[in-house]
Structures are given as C-alpha cells and as structure tokens.
Fold:
Amino acid sequence: MNVLVVGGAGYIGSHCVRQAAAAGHVVAVLDDLSYGHAESVPAGVKLYRADMGDQAAVRAALRETRAEVVIDFAAFTNVGESVQRPERYHENNVVRTEGLLQSMLAEGVKKLVFSSTCATYGVPERMPMTEDLPQQPINPYGATKLAVERRLRELAGSHGLSFAAFRYFNAAGASPDGAIGEDHSPETHLIPLAIAAALGRRPPLKVFGTDYPTPDGTCLRDYVHVDDLSRAHLDVLPKLAQPGQALFYNLGTGAPYSVKEVIASVARILGRPVPHELAERREGDPPALYADAAKVRRELGWVPRYDTLDSIVLTACHWHLARPKGFAS
Ligand code: UDP
Structure:
C-alpha cells in the first residue's frame, strides 16, 4: 500500500517505517522534527517536514504520495510533562491531530492506524487489562489520547473512517542491527536512564516510589519491544479494507516487570551495577499497568518475538553503547 507515516522520524515511527518498506509498502514520512530525527528516515523514503496540523502541507503530501493509509505516531508522550503543561498536550495531541483527520477526509483517505496508550485506562479496575475496561485517565497525556479515540469512533460512524487504535504499553528496545533506537531529549524513560546511569553518563537513577502496593514496592509495567509494537501496525492493515471499522487493541506482552527488575536486568546485561537512589512517587504514575493481549494475538496473530525483559534490554544496551549521543554520535 501507499503509506504516509506521520511522526515517522520518531522512536516508534522510525521502526515502523523500516518494517513497512521491507514488507514492500511504498512509504513516506511526515514529521515536524520537533522530537524526531531526520537521520532515522532511511534513504529512499521521502520526508515531508511539516506539522500534522498544517492542512495545506498534509493535504499536499497525501496527494503527492497517493496515500491509501495513514499511520500516525505523532504525539507528545511525556506523562510528567503533560501534568505540568496540559495545554501543550491538548494543542498538539488533540487539536493538531484533528487537523490531520480533516486533511485525510478532505483527500478521501479513510484508513488510519493510530498510536494510543494504556494511559487511557487510568488506574485500572482489573489486571491484566482487557480492552473493555473503563477508560478514566489520571494524566493529561492519557486524556488527550482518549479524546482522539472517541473522535475516531465518531468518524467511523459518520464518515466511514476505518481505523485501528493500538493502546501501547511501554515501548522499549532498539532495532537489533543497531541502526536506530531511542533518542529522546530530554530522556525520561526508565530503560535508557538506567543504562546511562550504569555507564556513568548520567547521575544515579531515581526510583520513583518504593511504597506502591506491588511485590517489591516499585511500579509494574509491561515492556514491549519497539519492533514487535511496530509490526502490529502492518499486521492490521488488511482489517481496514471494510469501511467503518473501529478496532482497539492492547499492545503489550502481558508480562509485568517492576522498576527494580528493570534495574537488575540492565545490570545483568551490562555486567555493572546501576547506581540508583530511592525517590518520591512521580505524579500521574499508576502502580501497575500490564496487558491482557489475547485480542491482538487472536485477531491479528500477533506474537511478540522479544518475550523476555532481558531480550529487550539487550537491544537497548547495544544501541546506547554504539551511539553514546544517540543520532548525534
Ligand atoms: N521510572 C523511575 N525513574 C525514572 C523514570 C521512570 O522510577 O527516572 C519509573 C516510572 O515511575 C514508571 C516506570 O519507571 O513506573 C516506567 O516509566 P517510563 O517513564 O519509562 O514509562 P511510562 O510508564 O511513564 O510510560
């Protein structure tokens, strides 16, 4: 298919772009490079540098690429920052995404794969989490993604938009060939910060909260390899052939790991300790989030190839060792 990947120069998007091209799709990227890296876009893939809310630019890109489907990764994703600056998250994740949707409808592009998040559930009633749990986000980031999910459902009914929204758990790891990986500025995610602390590139890791109602007192998360995550976006495309499809899938491996277990994994793989200190809870963090991924396994035949935390952390360590300054290395 002709695929326009919005946010395709970002962490997850860039992995999806490479997979889509390898699978024979004709791929182009639209990214404003506010967080993305032009270096992560492979040679031969056209990069449109534009804001997804810029309807003239987006419509031109959709026309020029004869896009049949949009895969949208473009969003601000930092939970902590969303609590401090909610208006920034609303403006980007809701208002500009609406601009993207309007551009798609105006150009007759009615297939979309959308990056949503397990943060739309808030503090879930049950664990592991199924797709039918109530969605009550406890931070603005989750609220913005839920707002778009609801909007997509409306457009499926009113305009025949066919979409799949993937509710990601914790994306982690890097491409196994070491070509691309996680390079956020500022970095806020646990695995890269733990690796950087172990390598002496950053101060000791702060463990946010050790009094959670979990076995070791630290938060439980479901870490899923970025290539496994990306692959699902391509696996779902045949399901969007029928107009008006509204599909929601949790995307995680289903295995919970605590912050302390992540620290132990990084230490094991690098063969050196992760200096860390205990700190206050971070606002907006639910104690435990892990997926019941039965639906995506059943309906898409999706099986994570990286099925242990160590296998994911290993690829992240390779990337950070090879590229100490990320794409600027
Ligand atoms: N975390 C931590 N110290 C850090 C960064 C994260 O203890 O410096 C914890 C955080 O509280 C959460 C888990 O690690 O329980 C994963 O956080 P991350 O920011 O990687 O992803 P999120 O779950 O927020 O999407």
Notes: Residues 79, 170, 188-190, 193, 205-208, 219, 221, 259, 282, 285 surround uridine-5'-diphosphate (CB under 6 Å). Residues 190-222+254-328 form a domain with the UDP-galactose 4-epimerase; domain 1 fold (CATH 3.90.25.10). The mean pLDDT is 97.
